[in-house]
Amino acid sequence: MDVYQDAVQYLQSEHVPVEVETAVLVEDVFHEEEEEEEVVMPSYLSSLQEESIDLPVTPTSCSSEEMLERRLLVLKGIVESEEVYLRELEVLLMPMKALRASAGTSQPVLSSQQVHTVFYQVPELRDMHQSFYSDLKARLNAHCHTDPASGEQRDMNHTDSELMVGEVFLKMVNQIGLYGGFIQNYEDAVEVVRKCTQSDPRFRTLAESMMLNNGADKSRTKYTFEALLYKPLDRVTKTTLVLRDLLKTTPAEHSDYVALQEALRLSRSFLSGVNESSQCKRDVMLSHGMRRQLMRDGFVVDGTDGERNLRHIFLYTDLLLCVRLKHTTRGKQDQYRFCWYLPLAGLKLHWSADQERPSDTHLRLHTIRSKMYLLRQQIRQQSRGSRGMSFVARTKKKLEQMDLMLLTYSPLYRLELHSPSGKSHTLLLSSLYELEEWREAIHKLSADNIETVPPDLLTLTSACVKLRMTQQPPLQISRAVEDTESLCGTLRVAIHSARGLQQPARVYVCVEVDGCDFYDNETQTHSSVHSLNPYWDQELSFQVDGAQNLRLLCVSQSDRRDDTVLGKTTFKLESKSLHNGWRRQILQLGSLELTLSLKYSHHRLEPPSSTASPLPVFSVPIETVAQQDGVLVPHVVRCCVEEVESRGMDEVGIYRVSGTSSEINALKNAFNSSKKIQSCVITFRLCCYVFNAVMNKCWESSHS
Questions:
Q1: What is the C-alpha separation between 337 and 165, in angstroms, rounded?
Q2: Which residue from 146, 261, 435, 688 has the fewest beta carbons nearer than 10 Å?
Q3: How far apart are CA 411 and CA 512, in angstroms?
Q4: Greatest alpha-carbon span in the chain
């Protein structure tokens, strides 16, 4: 700023006119201005005070070309500032692995719980900003390139190619809810740091001498641990300021304007929600000295009364609230409408999975996925061509509508909620992993027997807009920015075995991949035999588009109650390490160790095909059944052998007396339709019959 002021004074002394009021400086992009509203907040959140909610007016004192030049300067300043912020987060995370490793020793620096508290949500924030920085820098590099003839860097003509960054900012702001967890945990993290700094000289040495490299000049800046912990709080406010300055330099007719306007609204709504959350914690006092606060929220399908409706669920300390999002025009405040709520005290949970969809639902999902695939291909082609931006916007709108339909009709997993008052509701989810997270969160709170204070439903529903951590449903359009690290092709997962069970059980493994939902992205192994060390040796195959994470769950199958999730984990998929043949992995799922192998083949994907009906198990060659199951020994053989081994010694005439024809046909139909075979419905005589039939088939195949 000093250099700028000197330059202005010099030009004025030479009688050269200078427009000081409209100049946009890169150095001032992240400068905090005076607050226009005064709100009540904790002292450590003083930098999160929200500004005026009026959207900025695009200045008209300069031409569009001048505004675009200033806009480019603002974007370059944002990239440089993001690079510094990422280095600060890396320095903050640097000691995390060492502290976590020492937690398991006889003389830990921090306990495991303290390490979790200090670094809570910091890795997720780093990953979010790393993705934002990479996407934004890639678009700037594509816009500002080097001329091969002259070797000098030049800017592309604004009329030839517009610099489109609105989706990048909107994608980042849609994840800004991660800061909500960090802000709620901040006081606890600082308390741990201060306490350990005073009591442990080893941690004091670490906390008071954290060094940050300053880039090209190779100088280093010394930070304290507490100062680095404050950086995310400072950053979340600057996000709103950056968006406001960027919108001021974006012409109203620019294709980015609406997206940036929406991103600014979401950012301001989040900051307002931080203040609303702190007020809600003070206003509502529950039993045992607890206060009502938001624990989790997200979009699910409400399947009550047999209908499917996309709803936003808010889990508070003492109740579960279901609301409906009322869509408004972009740039205006969203609104919610109340649907129902259930107190958590005494709430009973029951989950199940639909074994198969009706044929009409299968056909509808296939039609939706096929249309989504074609629309996505059109968007990719249009982004490389010269088609108008209005045509791209219409295509994205169609894709969003198809995506909402897919979110509504694809879920297979049911989470039933039963209140002591007699009220019941059913939530439908596409992912068993997500269902288990919801079930764990609700069960933990309902087990505390919190006495619910009757809520003011109007106030609680109105506050949802500001309190929400999930801004939008997980649509394909929100993942429009391509990621070169994601997988596109065929992913093969071979599930081998597991160990660590406390008691024998029949266990199956559920495998899920993320990415675009054009193809089936969830499947599971067959149930193992009743054992302490289950094994499967089963290969599963996925057609993936944009996959980055693999989620696995080990589930114990039960005959009399809900299946029990024994453990779950998420594995980061890296295309480079999976290209070179099979890669063996041992993953920790709670107390279980799961052994599996991964292999990835990159190729162009074909349009999604309708799911064919499963091939029959009986009246076909046994090698065909084994190939269909992806195992060496077919599932039907394992089931029957297990029953013979477990009950064979207690039966008389095990191969002499057979079951009735009707029961045998019912069991064969169950195997042919790929339904789960519960041991309680399998009579011993049927297993002996099936076992003999299979062995005869094997004998006939070997002598043919």
A1: 33
A2: 146
A3: 13
A4: 113
